[in-house]
Design a protein that fits this description.
single chain; alpha/beta; three-stranded mixed β-sheet
């Protein structure tokens, strides 16, 4: 069971350290509370806004925290539901007379759903060979590889449905008959799936041209091996607020090189040495928000990845943006090792 103190963090902690703590607690909120007295709160949304403003991972959390948090005194704890719903927040600290945190009421514990909705279409690329998952994909197409009790593509659809998405288009190719049969046999679906047949392997960008004339609104575009634990409604609102043509959802990755790294200078001299250096970078999760004109402007029959499409618009000077998320919010099963990790993480949530 999570202890209250585990949700506390020092205002001198770095943004990177804070991201790691958020991942560890799984609650998406931390409190700056020296000696238990509430001073500020920090959510994953606060972190994202700070980083989008140009904040650095080695800045202190005090630069990103909200020093005007909502709270309730112990005597008014019964109003927690009302306050959570009124302000659309996920957690509310309960304070004693000295301003110290006695408890935290979470919206999930009161069955309050503060998620923003995004009732827009979702296009899923599900036609690849899945060669990195061989030999599984010799028997099953990648979208139907099970992760727990459901195949990955159904888990992806379920996540989108949680945010109001009901209209799905799936571009299929390899073993497409099996994919179509699976969804035809599913009972009690609260969404529709339309299939688009790809006759050649055109890549994640090229395959989209098969939807020309069919997309008349902003849509989510996803690979079939990526599972995100994010607020799709917030992502959609961010995309619209920034007037983006394409918004790429990216995850912060923190990687420690397991070796000593040597930089060589002239004539074979050692210019610098670093022991197990740490790298921090943003990586593409393979999920995007896309404006419909992108589909209409694709070159028909051209093999290309979707990052190539994004680069075209970036070079034109059009708005292509990034929505950053924590590493723990992204699960990828593109390789066997990652598939095993995803299965273990899904089992932990049951």
């Amino acid at each position: 069971m999570l202890k209250l103190e585990e949700l506390f963090i020092s205002e001198t902690a770095t943004i990177l350290e804070t991201m790691k703590r958020l991942d560890e607690t799984g609650q998406r909120i931390l409190f700056l509370a020296p000696n238990g007295r509430l001073e500020a709160v920090l959510t994953d949304g606060d972190l994202r806004k700070f980083l989008l403003r140009g904040g650095k991972l080695d800045d202190t959390v005090a630069h990103a925290a909200n020093y005007h948090p909502k709270s309730l005194p112990v005597a008014e704890r019964g109003r927690a539901r009302e306050v959570l719903e009124q302000y659309g927040i996920d957690a509310l600290p309960i304070l004693d007379k000295a301003g110290c945190i006695m408890d935290v009421v979470f919206a999930t514990g009161l069955d309050i759903d503060n998620r923003k909705k995004a009732n827009i279409p979702v296009v899923i690329m599900a036609g690849g060979l899945g060669t990195r998952l061989y030999p599984y994909t010799k028997i099953l197409p990648k979208p139907l590889i099970p992760v727990g009790e459901k195949p990955i593509v159904e888990l992806i659809i379920d996540r989108f449905c949680d945010y109001g998405c009901r209209d799905f288009r799936m571009v299929v190719n390899y073993k497409k008959g099996m994919i179509k049969s699976y969804f035809a046999d599913l009972e009690h679906k609260n969404y529709t799936v339309d299939f688009v047949d790809e006759t050649e392997f055109w890549g994640t960008g090229g395959g989209l041209c098969l939807l020309r004339g069919q997309m008349d609104s902003t849509f989510f575009f996803s690979n079939c091996d990526t599972l995100l634990d994010v607020d799709y409604g917030d992502i959609y609102q961010y995309h619209k607020a920034h007037n983006n043509v394409i918004t790429m959802i990216c995850a912060y990755k923190h990687y420690t090189v397991p070796y000593g790294v040597v930089e060589m200078g002239e004539n074979g001299s050692i210019q610098a040495m670093r022991e197990k250096p740490q790298l921090n970078f943003l990586t593409n999760t393979g999920v995007y928000v896309v404006e419909p004109r992108v589909v209409e402007e694709l070159e028909i029959g051209k093999k290309q990845g979707f990052p190539d499409v994004i680069e075209k618009y970036r070079r034109r000077g059009e708005n292509v943006g990034v929505y950053p998320i924590n590493e723990s919010s992204w699960m990828d099963m593109g390789q066997l090792e990652e598939l095993d990790k995803m299965r273990r993480r899904m089992e932990e949530k049951l």
